[in-house]
Amino acid sequence: MDRKRDIEETTLPQTPELLADLKCRVEANLQNALGGTTHFVVGIHWSGDSRRLSVKIDGDQGVSIDVCATLNRSLGKLIDEHGWQGPIVLEVGSPGAETPLVMQRQFPQHIGRQLKISMLNGSVIMGYLTELNSENLVLKEQEAPEIRVNFQEIKEAKVVIF
Question: What pTM did the predictor assign?
Fold first, then answer.
């Protein structure tokens, strides 16, 4: 018998309330586990079929595989104790190199790297991140004058990978 089909047939549909409750519990568990550390949650997302929960963690100096593995075990226990119906795939990892920076807290670790920033007004700016504060970041490109960018005007920011 096809194990995948057997699992699909015995899996009960998840209600929006159950999905929201589990996501809320996962977020609370992560906030508790990461509080007082240099790590932080970047995102928690369900797949379209509600069978995969993806958790993205970052850190002020990046994040190690050991941190991800520890969190995965902790969250796995939480999911096992929850009223979840059927199998779930849990992924705990760091944002990939090509993943947009979504929090101001992610920018300092990229000082010295080239960024590509899409602005809300449609323009695109590229340059090396040289400094930042709570409101702005500064980009510099060789002989060009530095560009000061307000965080509120950024639509998307990515580290340029060569």
Answer: 0.77
Q: Which residues contact 152 (CB under 8 A, 6 or more apart)?
A: 135
DSSP 57-114: EEEBTB--HHHHHHHHHHHHHHHHHS---S--EEEEEPPPTTSPB-SGGGSGGGTTSE
Phi, psi of 124 (to 5 degrees): -125, 135
90 in Cβ contact with 26 (< 8 Å):
no
* pLDDT tens, position by position, 19-31: 888 889 999 999 9
Name all domains of the chain by residue range, CATH numbers in brackets.
Answer: 3-93 (3.30.300), 104-159 (2.30.30.100)
For residue range 117-141, list pLDDT tens digits in order: 999 999 999 999 999 999 999 999 9
